[in-house]
Amino acid sequence: MSEHRSDEVDHLKRSIDWKQGMAIALGVPLLILPSLGYLPMWTSAAAILIWGLSVIQGFMQNAAYAEMATTFPKASGLPGFAQHIFRTENFTGKYDKGKLIGGFSAWSYWFAWNPVLAIFAILIGGYLHGLFPILAETFTEYQLSLLSGLVIFTLLSVVNWFGLKDGAILGYILGALSLIPLIILTVAPFATGHVDLANITGNWLPADWSWDMNHVLILLGIFAIAQWSACGWETAAIYGPEYKNPSKDVPKALLAVGLICFLSYVLVQTAVIGVLGVDGAVAEPLSPLIPVAQAIFGESGSVLTIIMLIIAMVLIIQTAFLGSSRAMHSMATEGNLPKFFGKTNRHGTPFIALLVTAAFNMVLISVGSMAAILAAAAIGYTFANGISLFAYVKAKKHPSFANLERPFKAPKGWQHVAMLFGLFNLPLCLVGVIYLNSLEIGWGSTWVGFIVLSLYIPIWFYSQHESSKHQKAAARAAANARVVDLDASPDSELVPDPIR
């Protein structure tokens, strides 16, 4: 963190341990919900394998992120790592290209997490519309989505106003509740014999699948969509500056959440396809867990499950709300966004970032297409992961970082693993998701993604201009202070004044 920014932006408080960080990230397994029917549509039962591989990819990437979190404890997660590492030390010019790269990574990460709020508000609106006939008679799904977003964002803003520790307490409560329906809907189909393994073994890949360039690009796009969900548990590292003991808390939180994600992603998709078959899962692209619940528990049981899932979706909104707001705070701290976005209240909460995040997602909900929003967010996530992994490689090789203390170290030679997955993200997954989007929903989501990402350029130049003005004002104030001190001295007439 550059010194000249230290007095401009308020700092986050060290208030949580690894269990609280894990609690906040426990909503990540819910990120599978929007894609439980989408992945089988393209890859049939092989979606189970893709989820497992994607969580393993998360382990590979997050080992690097955990090391960076402990090496740079004042940098806030992926956004902070890239900004800090790519920034040119002792830069004397006006525009630092390295700083721009790091800031763009942080902006991409913010855009990747931000739409989670809108996506799950849309899902909640759809569930409410199907669950309560009286609501369906009064409101459309679109209206319920807008209303759900407004109510949930308002309530979470109030809760998070009082600091991250209280947000983590809410995470404990909602985390336990969210895991209950997932555990039930995962274990019950196996226990009751509703899972038919022939639905999996007999439909491993689509009948027309071939390993040509078309299908390879589709597969890369699927991995981009899957990693947006299955690798999202790196959020536990985002709170590095707020852990009481980052060197121990960060790795513990990541490992715990990673194991939970691996089991949940693989088994939930297995249960859905095992009960419904590939065609049944594809027929319910947004809510395949509902017919699973109906098959096992009947109508009354499915109603209870939907209510519990809605509560669980509030948790993932909370996780994204915290992650995206702290990404904005990190950018403001590093001078890559106007300092206005880094303001915190007396509880240490970046409240301006929270309000901007909520307002932005209300706009996204008005778009109405969950698939388009998710596709655009996946573009941002590939950029964020790719640049962050390249930052790790630079941190391992660059002389200025070589002697830094690393309380947690990834296995020896991990920079090569990071480079491999960095290239997997950029350019492979990026090209794949753009291609997949063009086949599925046209070019609209791709344009939305790149337009939002490109908006960062003028914002960044404005923030650099703002920073330059502040530095000049600070220099003038310091010079004037020296003049006042000299004039106030009884021997001032005997001292040459260089200012004059």
Task: Describe the 3D structure.
This protein is mainly α and 500 residues long. The protein has one domain (3-478): Up-down Bundle (Amino acid/polyamine transporter I). It has 20 helices and no strands. Helix 9 (164-191) crosses helix 13 and helix 11 packs across helix 16 (370-397). It is globular and about 90 Å long. Residues 1-8 and 492-500 have low confidence and may be disordered. GO terms for molecular function: transmembrane transporter activity. Pfam families: AA_permease_2. Keywords: Cell membrane, Membrane, Transmembrane, Transmembrane helix. It is a multi-pass membrane protein.
Concise synopsis of the structure shown:
Helices cover 73% and strands 0% of the residues. It is mostly helical. The chain has one domain: Amino acid/polyamine transporter I.
Determine the CATH superfamily: Amino acid/polyamine transporter I
Domain count, please report it: 1
Unreliable segments of 5+ consecutive residues: 1-8, 492-500
Number of helices: 20
- Summarize the helix and strand pattern as letters: HHHHHHHHHHHHHHHHHHHH
Structural class: mainly alpha
In angstroms, what separates the terminal alpha carbons? 34 Å
User: How many whole angstroms does the radius of gyration measure?
Assistant: 24 Å
Overall shape: it is globular
Q: Which CATH architecture would you pick? A: Up-down Bundle
* Helical content band: over 70%
Q: Overall mean pLDDT score?
A: 84
Number of strands: 0
> What name does CATH use for the topology?
Amino acid/polyamine transporter I
The first-level CATH class name:
Mainly Alpha
Protein name: APC family permease
Main location: membrane
GO cellular component, one term: plasma membrane
Organism: Cryobacterium luteum
